[in-house]
Amino acid sequence: PPALEVRGLVRHFPGPGRSTVRAVDGVSLTVGRGEVVGLVGESGSGKSTVGQCVVRLDEPTGGTVRIGGVDVTRLSRRRLRPLRKDFHLVYQDPSASLDPRMSVARIVAEPLVLHRLARGDALRSRVAELLEQVGLRPELAERRPHELSGGQRQRVSIARALAVDPLLLVADEPTSALDVSVQASVLNLLADLQRDRGFGCLFITHDLAAVEFLADRIAVMYLGEIVEQAPAAELFTAPKHPYTQALLSAVPVPDPAVQRARGGSPAEGRGRIVLHGDLPSPVFPRTSTGQAVGYCRFHTRCPLAVERCRTEAPEHRTLPGGRQVACHLVEDDGTAPDAARPRPR
Ligand code: SF4
Ligand code: MG
């Protein structure tokens, strides 16, 4: 079984009045063993909520989450505990997850002790090995989290997460709280560890450059749902969904030399697509429970929207090659419109 299998995940909250906040509204995705899947979207798209539901920090209101084939969605806390070693979350702000009273060595040792995986000398040498693997000098072992830099703290939380050899690492914006100069080194570390250790990774971010660097596959979220899913290279070279096209058009085109080094032709310079308006609120009228909304969620901002987009929700279709997309205007053979060139309406 894959490291992670999410099917029809729903997380609704009661909203103001008789409304429903559809934070996550029918998300399905799979992370293979040893695969990195990037989950991207603007803030408020529901991507963090997906991560929280996966690690059971939040309770979904529908759907299932399987980790290594085990349905963890409705397991009691007690039955979940022994499985906890299979999945870990690395947060944006590691200071919130690191106990300020504990030394670095104890923080990293704790999961090994909890799951009875090592003790005594074996424990000490395992902790030393983990610190080395994440690039922390041995003398930092006795420091407390507040005595470390942000980058070092994030390395500690990565060491802690990997101490128990998880099947799945959920990384929610692991670098966005760090200085730009440190971000690349933490991303490189994650990439190296992932290659060596082979854990599956759900990498949640709004940083498209980071996701292009790290992910094998990318799922794009908009307002509680995944609108497009494809292998990273395909998504970056030929985005099909108008929202993905708009997102990618805002990414600076790499330097022509970089582009050639990657085997591509020098950048053509994609036309930038400017979306008007903010991400609409995920608050929907009526306390509805599961049924799809009756329109495309992107229609208020989509440069290509037609009448049908306002009256019918696009189906989530799988195109030849396994790519998934939810847009009325993408043909079954994968022919897609270009949001940079809307036809006059
Ligand atoms: Fe745009 Fe319509 Fe496609 Fe939605 S279904 S993305 S509104 S063209
Ligand atoms: Mg978030």
Automatic annotation (TrEMBL):
CDD domains: ABC_NikE_OppD_transporters (cd03257). It comes from the Bacteria. The keyword DNA-binding does not apply. Residues 4-248 form the ABC transporter domain. Signal peptide: none annotated. One of its GO terms (molecular function) is ATP binding. The keyword Nucleotide-binding applies. Keywords: ATP-binding, Nucleotide-binding, Transport. Belongs to the ABC transporter superfamily. This is Peptide ABC transporter ATP-binding protein. It comes from Streptomyces daqingensis.
